[in-house]
Write a sequence for this structure.
């Protein structure tokens, strides 16, 4: 799971990222991504992959390991209009909901589902079983399902409504 902002020069300043340039930031995030993601792994990008157009985003995608699924975020102008904004799936008996935006209530939240999001760059507090999976919250690495599961283990259910 990841939210990255490849090629976005202002994100370095906005999020106080420790990089001197876009090229350094992109190179390091890609290196860290590929160090933990195998070619056969499925990766959900929770929006805001890049601000750039389709041509530029291809240069990032071709460098990344994994089978990538993209959700539309607030700055994904390169994605088709009908790109999903939410992804839901049961993995190893755990129901997962991924959306770019943090939700207060999400599908099956009352039954212990996990809500994963980007958008906030680690600036809003966790809530129940909701978690920000942006690279700003994980030393510029994507989160694995196992890491998410370990973090969420024992957390209270989140979201009051079905």
């Amino acid at each position: 799971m990841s939210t990255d902002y490849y090629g976005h020069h202002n994100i370095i300043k906005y999020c106080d990222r420790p990089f001197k340039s876009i090229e350094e930031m992109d190179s390091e995030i890609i290196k860290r991504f590929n160090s933990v993601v195998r070619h056969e792994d499925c990766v959900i990008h929770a929006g805001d992959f890049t601000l750039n157009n389709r041509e530029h985003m291809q240069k990032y995608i071709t460098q990344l390991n994994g089978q990538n699924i993209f959700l539309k975020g607030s700055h994904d102008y390169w994605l088709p209009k009908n790109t999903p904004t939410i992804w839901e799936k049961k993995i190893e008996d755990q129901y997962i909901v991924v959306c770019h935006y943090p939700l207060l209530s999400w599908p099956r939240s009352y039954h212990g589902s996990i809500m994963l999001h980007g958008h906030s760059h680690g600036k809003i507090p966790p809530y129940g079983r909701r978690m920000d999976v942006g690279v700003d919250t994980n030393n510029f690495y994507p989160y694995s399902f196992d890491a998410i599961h370990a973090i969420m283990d024992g957390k209270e259910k989140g979201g009051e409504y079905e």
Q: What stands out?
A: The beta strands are 42-45, 67-70, 86-91, 94-99, 114-117, 130-132.
